[in-house]
C-alpha cells in the first residue's frame, strides 16, 4: 500500500518496495522480469527465485509464502481482481 504522511511524503509498504526492487533489477531478468507491457511481472525460474532472490529480500525462501503474501496484498487493495489474475503459463508464473 501507498500512504501519504502528514508532511506530504509518501510511504510504500515494504512488501511492495521489495517486490519492485526484485523485479526492476536487470541482473535478475532470467529469474524474474517485467511483463511485456510493464504492468505485470513473470517468475521465469521458480527454483532460482526461491534460492537466490526470496532469501535476499524476505526472511524466507518459500514460494508459496510469497504467493500468499502477494494474493493478500492484491485482494486487500484490488478486490475487483479475480483470483485467476495469477496465471500459470508454461512453467513460469505471470502476476498481474
Fold and architecture overview:
There is one protein chain. The chain has 96 residues and is α+β, with helices and mostly antiparallel strands. 40% of the residues lie in helices and 21% in strands. It has 3 helices and 6 strands, in the order ββαββααββ. It has helices spanning 14-24, 46-57, 63-77; strands at residues 2-4, 10-12, 32-34, 41-43, 86-89, 92-95. The strands form 2 sheets. The chain has a 4-stranded antiparallel beta sheet with strand order 3-4-6-5, covered by helices on one side. The chain has a two-stranded antiparallel ribbon with strand order 1-2. The longest helix is centred in the last third of the chain and has 15 residues, at 63-77. The protein is globular. The relative contact order is 0.15. The model is unreliable at 82-92 (pLDDT under 50).
Helices and strands in order:
Layout: E1 2-4, E2 10-12, H1 14-24, E3 32-34, E4 41-43, H2 46-57, H3 63-77, E5 86-89, E6 92-95
Antiparallel strand pairs: 1-2, 3-4, 4-6, 5-6
